[in-house]
Q: What sequence folds into this?
């Protein structure tokens, strides 16, 4: 199985539009362009239908639009750090960190596990601060892979431990 997220699935400091619809359409296009979905429109339609049921914005400037779709070939995570932010319905305002989870139809357990792991990581202020400070797509992928594997990214543990004498 390939990695859930790759550098081709990351957008940094991009203006992807002014609405959740714009952002979801762009990220669905990224997923299809990498060969992880058979088509953009079906994936977008499923993701946007899910977004219209319940907004996916969560506190802290984060949104996690997600769906299961027949268009998805393999479970995928796309990510965008937005500039400007877009309102995904969170009570504390618009989001600058957007994670798009696309899972194949019938992948209920995988979808829920990924959503749960990601949400647990995103409540950690040091993780979201590192995502906002990352200077490259590679750094984002390393951070996210580390979080999803329940281990810190290599550079995140670069703070030396106190020496006990």
A:
């Amino acid at each position: 199985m390939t990695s859930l997220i790759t550098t081709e699935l990351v957008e940094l400091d991009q203006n992807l539009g002014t609405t959740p619809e714009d952002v979801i359409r762009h990220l669905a296009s990224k997923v299809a362009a990498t060969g992880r979905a058979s088509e953009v429109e079906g994936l977008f339609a499923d993701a946007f239908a899910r977004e219209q049921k319940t907004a996916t914005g969560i506190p802290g400037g984060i949104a996690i639009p997600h769906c299961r779709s027949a268009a998805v070939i393999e479970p995928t995570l796309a990510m965008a750090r937005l500039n400007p932010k877009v309102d995904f319905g969170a009570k504390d305002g618009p989001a600058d960190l957007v994670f798009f989870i696309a899972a194949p139809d019938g992948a209920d357990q995988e979808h829920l596990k990924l959503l749960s792991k990601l949400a647990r990581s995103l409540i950690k202020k040091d993780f979201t601060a590192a995502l906002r400070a990352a200077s490259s797509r590679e750094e984002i992928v390393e951070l996210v892979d580390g979080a999803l594997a329940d281990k810190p990214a290599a550079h995140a543990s670069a703070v030396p431990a106190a020496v006990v004498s």
